[in-house]
Amino acid sequence: MTSNIFFGAAAVTFFVVLWLILPAIASRRDVMKMTPAEHGWYAKRIFPLMLLFGAFATAGSLAGQWGWP
Protein backbone atom coordinates (compact mmCIF):
# COMPACT_ATOMS: atom_id res chain seq x y z
CA MET A 1 0.00 0.00 0.00
CA THR A 2 2.69 2.48 0.99
CA SER A 3 4.84 1.56 -1.99
CA ASN A 4 1.92 2.29 -4.33
CA ILE A 5 1.52 5.73 -2.78
CA PHE A 6 5.22 6.47 -3.27
CA PHE A 7 5.14 5.21 -6.86
CA GLY A 8 2.08 7.37 -7.50
CA ALA A 9 3.88 10.40 -6.09
CA ALA A 10 6.89 9.59 -8.28
CA ALA A 11 4.64 9.39 -11.36
CA VAL A 12 3.01 12.73 -10.57
CA THR A 13 6.42 14.34 -10.07
CA PHE A 14 7.66 12.89 -13.37
CA PHE A 15 4.64 14.26 -15.25
CA VAL A 16 5.19 17.70 -13.70
CA VAL A 17 8.76 17.61 -15.00
CA LEU A 18 7.54 16.66 -18.47
CA TRP A 19 4.92 19.42 -18.30
CA LEU A 20 7.70 21.93 -17.59
CA ILE A 21 10.13 20.61 -20.22
CA LEU A 22 7.87 19.92 -23.20
CA PRO A 23 6.95 23.54 -24.03
CA ALA A 24 10.64 24.48 -24.15
CA ILE A 25 11.49 21.58 -26.43
CA ALA A 26 8.46 21.95 -28.69
CA SER A 27 8.66 25.71 -29.17
CA ARG A 28 12.33 25.87 -30.18
CA ARG A 29 14.28 24.39 -33.03
CA ASP A 30 17.55 24.41 -31.13
CA VAL A 31 17.34 24.07 -27.36
CA MET A 32 21.04 24.91 -27.06
CA LYS A 33 20.34 28.49 -28.23
CA MET A 34 18.41 29.31 -25.06
CA THR A 35 19.77 32.17 -23.00
CA PRO A 36 21.65 31.47 -19.76
CA ALA A 37 18.71 32.91 -17.82
CA GLU A 38 16.37 30.37 -19.43
CA HIS A 39 18.77 27.52 -18.67
CA GLY A 40 18.94 28.71 -15.06
CA TRP A 41 15.16 28.88 -14.79
CA TYR A 42 14.84 25.29 -15.95
CA ALA A 43 17.72 24.10 -13.79
CA LYS A 44 16.20 25.59 -10.65
CA ARG A 45 12.92 23.80 -11.30
CA ILE A 46 13.84 20.54 -13.03
CA PHE A 47 16.80 19.28 -10.98
CA PRO A 48 15.07 19.41 -7.58
CA LEU A 49 11.97 17.78 -9.04
CA MET A 50 14.05 14.97 -10.54
CA LEU A 51 15.75 14.43 -7.18
CA LEU A 52 12.32 14.27 -5.57
CA PHE A 53 11.23 11.76 -8.23
CA GLY A 54 14.26 9.61 -7.42
CA ALA A 55 13.56 9.80 -3.70
CA PHE A 56 9.93 8.76 -4.17
CA ALA A 57 10.86 5.91 -6.49
CA THR A 58 13.54 4.67 -4.10
CA ALA A 59 11.22 4.85 -1.10
CA GLY A 60 8.52 3.04 -3.06
CA SER A 61 10.83 0.22 -4.06
CA LEU A 62 12.24 -0.20 -0.55
CA ALA A 63 8.97 0.22 1.40
CA GLY A 64 8.32 -3.52 1.68
CA GLN A 65 11.91 -4.20 2.77
CA TRP A 66 11.65 -1.53 5.47
CA GLY A 67 8.51 -3.15 6.85
CA TRP A 68 6.03 -0.49 5.79
CA PRO A 69 2.58 -1.90 4.98
Our measurement of the CA-to-CA distance between the termini, rounded to an integer number of angstroms, reads 6 Å
Give the helix level as a range of percent: over 70%
Radius of gyration, in Å, reads: 16 Å
Average pLDDT score: 88
How many strand segments? 0
- Individual helix count: 2
Strand content: under 5%
N-to-C SSE series? Answer: HH
Q: Return residue spans where pLDDT drops below 50 for at least 5 consecutive residues.
A: none
Shape: elongated
Structural class of the helices, strands and pairings? mainly alpha
The largest sheet is: none
Protein name: DUF4149 domain-containing protein
Transmembrane segments: 6-25, 46-68
Organism: Rhizobium brockwellii
Keywords: Membrane, Transmembrane, Transmembrane helix
Report on this structure.
There is one protein chain. Helix 1 packs antiparallel against helix 2 (36-62). The chain has two helices and no strands. Helix content is 77%, strand content 0%. The chain starts with a helix and ends in a 7-residue tail after the last helix. The protein is mainly alpha-helical and 69 residues long. The relative contact order is 0.22. The protein has helices at 2-27, 36-62. The mean pLDDT is 88. This is DUF4149 domain-containing protein. The chain crosses the membrane at residues 6-25, 46-68. Keywords: Membrane, Transmembrane, Transmembrane helix.
